[in-house]
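Annotators were shown the component list below and the corresponding predicted structure, then asked to write short factual statements about the assembly.
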Amino acid sequence: MTDPFIQVKGLYKIFGEDPESALPHIAEGKSKNEILAETGHTIGLKDINLTIEKGKLFVVMGLSGCGKSTLIRHFNRLIDPTKGQIIVDGVDVVQLSQKELESFRCHKISMVFQHFGLMPHRTVLENVAYGLAVQKVNKEIRYEKAHHWLETVGLKGYESLYPSQLSGGQQQRVGLARALCTDADILLMDEAFSALDPLIRSEMQDQLIELQEKLHKTIIFITHDLDEALRLGDRIAILKDGELVQEGAPEDILLNPVNDYVEAFVRDVNRARALTVETVMKPPVWRITANTIAEALSQMRKQPGDYGYYVNDDGYQGVITQEKLEAAAKKNGSGVICEKVIEELSPVSPDSLLESVLPETLDSEYPLPVVDEQGELCGELSRASLAKALVDTGGDESEESTGTRPST
Amino acid sequence: MAENSWLTEFPAMDRTDLLAIRKTLDSGFRDFSRSYGDAIESFFDPLLNLLVLIEQLLIQSPWWVIILAVAGLSFAASRSIKLTIGVIVAFMLIGYFGMWDNAMRTMGIITVSTLLSITIGVPIGILMSSSNRAQSIVTPILDIMQTMPAFVYLIPVVMLLGIGKVPGVIAVVIYAIPPVIRLTNLGIRLVDKEVLEAATAYGANRMQRLWGVQLPLAMPTIMAGINQTIMMALAMVVIASMIGVKGLGQPVLKSITNQYFTMGLFNGLAIVALAIIFDRVSQAYAKRSQKHLQGIQND
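Structure shown to annotators:
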């Protein structure tokens, strides 16, 4: 997973009569508007460098006109770059001949379009099988595959209809099935869900996440919607005026925006829905591992707090308070820690969204333990850290948090 | 006064110079047609043979065979009983008023001209749609073809090929071909860019894009162009009769010169009837295929 699957190096795209002539102007550090005024050339992309790992969902984000659709069309060279390299699996796509390029598009890369790009004169089945038809795959095989993918996206029974007879969401499912049907490693999705209404959009996002868990394609996803980006992306790159502003994991973008532009994006995001427990939890300092009550009490006294998480060989068991321990120690100090002294406190998973653990965190007397799938205690989630994460940039969610709201 | 006459009169070319130009051009073209006329004529021989074949087929066949064939064709194209009955009635009337043979000759020349226009026009339209330079060259030529009075280009055609069917067909094609070229170009250029992009993104080459996406999606527009071409070919029939094309145009021409009002009216009406039949049948066919394209199935 460590060696880069797709690498973009120093990619420039300039629109105009003589794109090469504008390159020196960019090198001089002139702005987009200055170059447009002086030479009549528009900068589409400026010095883009990206590394995309295999099997990851990489989101490119930005407002309209920032060059994100231009960028995605470079990966399969629907647009030719002015300068730069795009290396996919060791091959520089920019250097491919027309024939090689066609074969590359057939086998390696497929694409889903914003307005679906379905062929109105072909049935759903023929549309899905289109990629294979271009490759001149035998009719039976390609229809069999198309049937399979239509079933996967939940459109079984729609094969003989025409695209215009389907709803937007269904049409995009056909688009998705068509993209999957060629078994390409790389999936380009150009604002694939932007034309759909919100409910259908989130349904499609769920479906994509579900499919990705099974298929592990390398997906490059374009969107202008940060919520969508945070929800889907393993990595997010933010573009502005053809330049890469920030690239990183979703939490990075959310918690450490590099400049005002990114911050403006991030401000409106519903953090409770975007951040997971893992990103805000603190390491569990108060861990009780002793066997007897006396040992436990001595461990407890070394800690500043009056509670601790009891962990044994089987992992997390529950929470123990100093009060109870002392009461138990009076009776029988050398006794084994039993269920009497352990208070039950249901743990939360590191992958759950803050939104889903909000009520429990607020209700609980102690910070909630965070326990991973193996049963290991990996952190704790306090009201304070939750509140801090939610109100970091003065978002609207603060009223849901406790009294730790900073005065503004 | 001779010095300032250019103020009152346009400083036109000397009459002798003009005469010289005309003489050179005329004699040049005459020499050209004398030396190459036969070669060009023999080049068009296959066309003449096709024309004669179709005309003979239409005239020699018994009238009821033709009516049945035309009715069957229009039903196959339109799937409409009403239209088919209309076609039968129109042909009956044409025959009853004694214009059968002329109508068949006209149908023959229209058929050949239309086929020729399509086989030449559609490829030119495709070329225009794929290259802006081709478009900027062809468009003014089409403008000239459409606005130049038909009589003017009849002259060189007749000088080259004489009077007869082939020059008639050529004149009709020159007059009727622009719509099919223009609308093929337009139709292909109007194809949804994203659909074409999708085809490219899945590795389709130029030919696969043309046959699989561009032509099928442009078909409604191309059909409209073909329909226009047929209509213009029919309109040209009267003028083509001046260079010896037989058919419904000739009686019209005769009635203009002799002021035979009724004869002119009947033959004119017959041309109108043919035009309506061609138009309705081709429109109905285009519409049917268009509906199929959009997937709205109501039959």
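Statements collected:
1. The longest helix of chain B spans residues 206-240.
2. Chain B has 13 helices and no strands.
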